[in-house]
Backbone:
């Protein structure tokens, strides 16, 4: 039985955990001096050894990404933290920055030092005003305490950290669209190459990392690469925050080693909603293909979830019980993608427009079985044809739901509409209600 | 004459496309490599002259081997993918994956497209329509399944000329990328997101661009249309002819589309050596002048003070008699005639009138300029558009390319954007065009250009032997400036080229329509040159005395030293002194006017001969870079004759009366043959003699601080060749008076950015004008106004360029106009 391993979430229960005092009381900012005592390349090596992989969903090795920064490039280097957490179901970075912004700030300092950046940015989604304020205050506290600014801790290293509030677009979580937004332009993804490591922000070498990846760095420096690599599975080292939401008794953040199973997590969360059972779930937010109860024992690491036909993604575990109409859920997600498509490329822009209409008709019991094939063909024409991964993500819930729940789609047609009672799936539904 | 750059070995890579091996230069994009093997991959956003973007995804191809033994798992956009050695590409022709991907994207593109081809201007020449046929399915699954398209009100005007139909737009971003990358006018951009994304303007900044028509032309659907052409005709009803734009000395290739004897529209031609695929809005939209109501359609002679229609033979006879009886006569041609017509004027003056009093320069000019044209322009060449792109430094002297030579502007902007070329401009201020070329201003108060040019020899300006110096015609307005330019070229080794504003100017120099030059660059002062030409023309001798220039002809007419005048296409308000020119017309004993439309000249002329517009005749415009750009007649119109035919008619009548000889030609072909057989002068070029400086200007009245007047003509203004196209004229920049911050404060007191542009009255010795005042980086004591954007223009109604004018604050009346201007300049 895998147990929780609170590292990032360890201090969340502290009194006013978001303050510098509370953070330092638990040993915060100790990783700085340890890192400054090492050469920047040595810091990169530690992170490489730890096996830390990007926590934003793609799982790219963080240390390798840092190593791509051409240190002979005369332009300034930049570290950009992607805090534009917008994926439906994903809710790990926002609580982290809310509860303990200093964990992120400390990670930024160590990471920026490693890649030799003197300016770093946190691009945080603009809607979470409270979090922005906590971040801004934390950065201010760090400056006042000498953790940021000139000659940090007497190391001779300078770093400025800028908290940038986005304007609320899902696409700005895509790293090149984020850079466009940071430069003051419309958030639309850029053509690659050049890759950000070569010409990113202001055409300079840039590392873009997820909040959780950067926040994990101080603990790796403090406890060593071996400590981190000792957790998790063979190729998916370390711990991660698993965000359980939906029809589970105690939704919330569960920090555990990678490789824990959903069955274990549901147990930790007190089980499914009283009197109900799991019907389908997303392992990493709405852009990862749906899984079913038969996948309850799949280890939640990059390789195993991939082998099960989905992706680990952001470990946003949305759990749906048997009261939920899968067509309805998929339509809501698809409406989100249609609303958030940036419009740059044809397949995503027009495809999501069309998918929504086809799904809406199916939900109402209109259309025919041929529409399922039409949906799958549309998905086939979007997946791998769009400019960035947003278009790919939009097809995941549709194709996976038809794969697992084709009969339920057809039931809408034979039933002349949705056979489910939408009220039964709500949080305020009476206990034991069913469709 | 032109030099081609040294051919360097181009590194090539070899790849296989649809089973065919092809070698293409390194960095070629797959989509263009495929064209080399005859495979057309469908595309919308891709344009060879714009940066790749990969937005529309129409050009997806399958790459089983990227050249490294591994393939791409997903289809790749061929418009963003450079070729690699050993790469294997399978397009829609051989790959089911690529074909399905393309069909899928095409289907998506059409779901929100209105499919209103039967009523769309683009129908019949539409890339979307054509490629939907070649790479799409016949029936729409979207429509079959009851899909609902997004709709928008349509059209919306994004400028006075450019109309946007948002429903038809496929969001390829060609127009926005063109405006940003090529024209440098990023005033349209994509706004909103998803399927609601649309091309938009910022509410306070209209899409103001001299090149907006190109965005319409490269739109791959019918989303952008011009107010001028919208709903006027169908492409398949049009007949197309290649031609050359007549509005500047750049020689841009154009396509003239016409129907039933009427030009319906003009498009940019594709000439990589000249205008690439772009033309200015003036070249595109300014063609209605030839169909105005005041177009002259038959010869007229004056009888009892009134003009009456006449037959051609009668008109020629009356003109010949009148010229014979008027005594000494002179010839003034405008700068718009073709080289063949200019040759006819030049020969007519010498052979029929026995004089060298001929000048094409219908603008402020000087004796120094005539000497410069003879010594450094005639027969010169060697600087090309490609050289402008390759030069590390291009110096602009008295030249604003965006306004006066739009094709040069686009080339220089392209070069500057690539970071290769530094543009340096000697001018009174940083114009919008100079800013877009990232050019460096070397400020010059009007009248001081010669001294400022002399400072360019300094190393900091980088004028080396690789540099190019472009000399505008306005440099002639300052005595000594042309000599200084020549001196700069001589000391630095930089190459020099003269860029006139009008299409016919350079051809007129070569054809000898100057008092000091005979055809083929032969100096009048050289006896051997005169003998040369006289022999070719079968004349006993040619007049030996260097003739009067335009200014001197006007003065001599006023003094009665000249009696007759032949005027071809001169607008009095373009001349150095319009009032004097008009007086000279009145003073002349006999005036023959060769004109297209009724003007102040035809109204007082004794014989009026209608001439053919460029659409009705063949001809040649010689460009600033000495390219002979020949074009054929678009229409066959027997009653519309070129100037040379009319001059031949008069000359034949004169010969019958015993004066001179017939010109010996009647057609363009005959003139071309004669020019060819005469050939260029192979003798030494005359030296440049700057001549005497002119008398200093009158001192202004006491008590008023004088400002030096700087001015040039803007691309779109009140010029008569732009008559008849209201939408084009509506895109003209609002006329303003620009002055330095200190000068502004000396007139208005404190600068108040919030208050908008106050009105200033500029007064010169010919009148005054009231315009909104704006601050620019002019030297103190200089005011700039556009030359032909109000009333009859600066020359007629304000003062001579460079002369002293006074400024005073105008009463804050004209509230409406004020507000309008504020909106436009904000």
Residues:
């Amino acid at each position: 039985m895998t147990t929780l391993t609170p590292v990032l979430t360890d201090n969340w229960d502290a009194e006013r955990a978001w303050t510098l005092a509370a953070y330092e009381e638990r040993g915060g900012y100790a990783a700085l001096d340890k890192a400054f005592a090492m050469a920047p390349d040595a810091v990169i090596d530690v992170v490489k050894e730890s096996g830390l992989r990007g926590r934003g969903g793609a799982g790219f090795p963080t240390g390798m990404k840092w190593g791509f920064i051409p240190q002979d490039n005369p332009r300034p280097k930049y570290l950009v933290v992607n805090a534009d957490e917008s994926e439906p179901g994903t809710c790990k970075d926002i609580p982290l920055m809310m509860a303990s912004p200093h964990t992120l700030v400390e990670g930024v300092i160590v990471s920026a030092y490693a890649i030799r950046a003197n300016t770093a940015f946190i691009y945080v989604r603009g809607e979470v005003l409270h979090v922005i304020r906590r971040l801004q205050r934390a950065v201010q506290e760090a400056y006042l305490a000498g953790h940021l600014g000139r000659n940090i801790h007497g190391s001779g290293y300078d770093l400025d950290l800028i908290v940038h509030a986005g304007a609320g677009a899902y696409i700005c979580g895509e790293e090149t669209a984020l850079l466009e937004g940071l430069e003051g332009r419309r958030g639309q993804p850029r053509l690659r190459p050049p890759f950000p490591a070569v010409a990113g922000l202001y055409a300079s070498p840039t590392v873009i990392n997820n909040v959780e990846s950067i926040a994990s760095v101080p603990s790796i420096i403090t406890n060593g690469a071996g400590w981190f690599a000792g957790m998790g599975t063979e190729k998916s080292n370390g711990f991660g925050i698993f965000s359980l939401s939906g029809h589970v008794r105690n939704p919330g953040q569960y920090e555990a080693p990678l490789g824990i199973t959903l069955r274990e997590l549901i147990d930790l969360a007190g089980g499914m909603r009283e009197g109900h059972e799991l019907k389908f779930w997303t392992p990493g937010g709405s852009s990862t293909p749906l899984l079913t109860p038969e996948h309850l024992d799949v280890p939640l690491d990059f390789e195993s979830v991939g082998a099960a036909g989905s992706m680990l993604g952001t470990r946003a575990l949305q759990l749906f019980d048997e009261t939920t109409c899968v067509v309805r859920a998929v339509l809501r997600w698809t409406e989100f993608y249609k609303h958030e498509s940036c419009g740059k490329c044809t397949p995503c822009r027009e495809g999501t427009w069309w998918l929504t209409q086809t799904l809406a008709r199916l939900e109402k019991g209109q259309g025919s079985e041929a529409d399922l094939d039409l949906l799958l063909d549309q998905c086939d024409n979007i997946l791998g044809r769009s400019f960035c991964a947003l278009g790919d993500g939009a097809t995941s819930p549709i194709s996976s739901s038809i794969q697992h729940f084709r009969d339920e789609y057809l039931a809408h047609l034979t039933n002349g509409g949705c056979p489910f009672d939408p009220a039964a799936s709500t949080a305020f539904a009476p206990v034991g209600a069913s469709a | 004459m032109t030099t081609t750059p040294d051919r360097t070995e181009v590194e090539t890579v070899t790849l296989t496309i649809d089973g065919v091996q092809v070698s293409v230069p390194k960095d070629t994009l797959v989509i263009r490599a495929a064209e080399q093997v005859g495979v057309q991959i469908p595309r919308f956003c891709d344009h060879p002259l714009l940066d790749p973007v990969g937005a529309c995804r129409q050009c997806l191809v399958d790459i089983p081997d990227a050249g490294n033994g591994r393939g791409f798992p997903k289809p790749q956009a061929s418009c963003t993918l450079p070729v690699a050695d050993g790469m294997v590409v399978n397009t829609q022709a051989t790959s089911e994956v690529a074909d399905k991907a393309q069909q899928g994207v095409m289907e998506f593109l059409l779901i929100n497209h209105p499919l209103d081809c039967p009523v769309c201007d683009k129908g019949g020449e539409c890339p979307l329509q054509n490629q939907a046929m070649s790479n799409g399915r016949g029936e729409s699954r979207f429509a079959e399944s009851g899909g609902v398209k997004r709709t928008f009100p349509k059209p919306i005007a994004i400028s006075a000329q450019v109309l946007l139909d948002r429903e038809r737009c496929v969001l390829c971003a060609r127009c926005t990328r063109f405006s940003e990358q090529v024209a440098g006018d990023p005033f349209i951009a994509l706004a909103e997101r998803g399927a609601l994304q649309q091309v938009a303007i910022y509410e306070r900044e209209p899409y103001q661009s001299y090149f907006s028509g190109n965005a319409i032309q490269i739109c791959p659907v019918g989303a952008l249309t011009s107010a001028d052409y919208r709903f006027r005709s169908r492409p398949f009803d049009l007949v197309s002819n290649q031609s050359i734009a007549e509005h500047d000395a750049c020689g841009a290739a154009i396509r003239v589309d016409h129907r039933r004897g009427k030009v319906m529209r003009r498009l940019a031609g594709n000439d990589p050596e000249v205008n690439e695929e772009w033309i200015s809005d003036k070249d595109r939209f300014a063609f209605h002048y030839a169909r105005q109501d005041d177009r002259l359609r038959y010869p007229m002679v004056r009888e009892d003070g009134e003009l009456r229609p006449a037959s051609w033979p009668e008109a020629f006879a009356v003109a010949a008699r009148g010229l014979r009886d008027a005594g000494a006569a002179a010839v003034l041609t405008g700068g718009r005639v073709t080289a063949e017509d200019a040759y006819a004027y030049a020969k007519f003056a010498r052979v029929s009138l026995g004089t060298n009093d001929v000048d094409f320069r219908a603008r402020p000019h000087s004796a120094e300029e005539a000497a410069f044209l003879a010594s450094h322009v005639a027969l010169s060449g060697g600087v090309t558009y490609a050289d402008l792109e390759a030069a590390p430094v291009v110096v602009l002297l008295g030249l604003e390319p965006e306004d006066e030579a739009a094709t040069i502007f686009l080339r220089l902007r392209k070069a500057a954007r690539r970071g290769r070329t530094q543009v340096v401009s000697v001018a009174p201020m940083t114009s919008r065009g100079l800013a877009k070329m990232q050019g460096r201003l070397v400020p010059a108060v009007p009248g001081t250009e010669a001294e400022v040019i002399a400072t360019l020899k300094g190393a900091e300006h980088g004028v080396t032997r690789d540099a190019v110096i472009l000399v505008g015609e306005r440099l002639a307005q300052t005595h000594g400036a042309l000599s200084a330019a020549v001196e700069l070229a001589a000391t630095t080794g930089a190459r020099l080229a003269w860029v006139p504003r009008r299409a016919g100017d350079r051809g007129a120099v070569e054809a000898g329509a100057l008092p000091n030059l005979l055809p083929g660059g032969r100096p009048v002062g050289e006896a051997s040159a005169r003998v040369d030409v006289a022999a070719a023309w079968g004349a006993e001798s040619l007049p030996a005395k260097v003739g009067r220039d335009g200014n001197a002809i006007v003065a001599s007419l006023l003094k009665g030293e000249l009696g007759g005048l032949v005027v071809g296409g001169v607008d009095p308000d373009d001349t150095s002194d319009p009032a004097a020119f008009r007086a000279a017309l009145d003073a002349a004993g006999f005036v023959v006017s060769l004109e297209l439309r009724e003007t102040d000249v035809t109204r007082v002329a004794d014989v009026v001969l209608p001439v053919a517009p460029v659409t009705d005749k063949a001809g040649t415009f010689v460009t600033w870079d000495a390219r002979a750009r020949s074009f054929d007649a678009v229409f066959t119109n027997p009653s519309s004759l070129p100037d040379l035919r009319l001059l031949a008619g008069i000359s034949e009548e004169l010969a019958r009366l015993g004066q001179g000889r017939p010109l010996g030609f009647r057609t363009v072909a005959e003139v071309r043959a004669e020019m060819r057989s005469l050939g260029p002068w192979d003798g030494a070029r005359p030296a440049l003699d700057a001549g005497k400086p002119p008398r200093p200007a009158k001192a202004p009245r006491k008590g008023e601080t004088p400002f030096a007047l700087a001015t040039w003509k803007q691309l779109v203004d009140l010029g008569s060749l732009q008559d008849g196209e209201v939408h084009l004229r509506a895109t003209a920049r609002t006329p303003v008076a620009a002055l330095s911050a200190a000068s502004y404060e000396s007139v208005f007191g404190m600068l108040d950015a919030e208050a908008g542009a106050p009105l200033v009255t500029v007064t010169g010795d010919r009148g005054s004008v009231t315009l909104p005042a704006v601050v620019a980086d002019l030297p103190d004591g200089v005011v700039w106004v556009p030359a032909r954007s109000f009333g009859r223009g600066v020359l007629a109604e304000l003062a001579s360029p460079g002369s002293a004018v006074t400024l005073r604050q105008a009463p804050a009346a004209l509230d409406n106009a004020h507000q309008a201007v504020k909106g436009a300049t904000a």
Summary: The mean pLDDT of chain A is 95. Chain A touches chain B through 35 residues (CB under 8 Å). Chain A has three domains: 20-229, 239-321, 326-419.
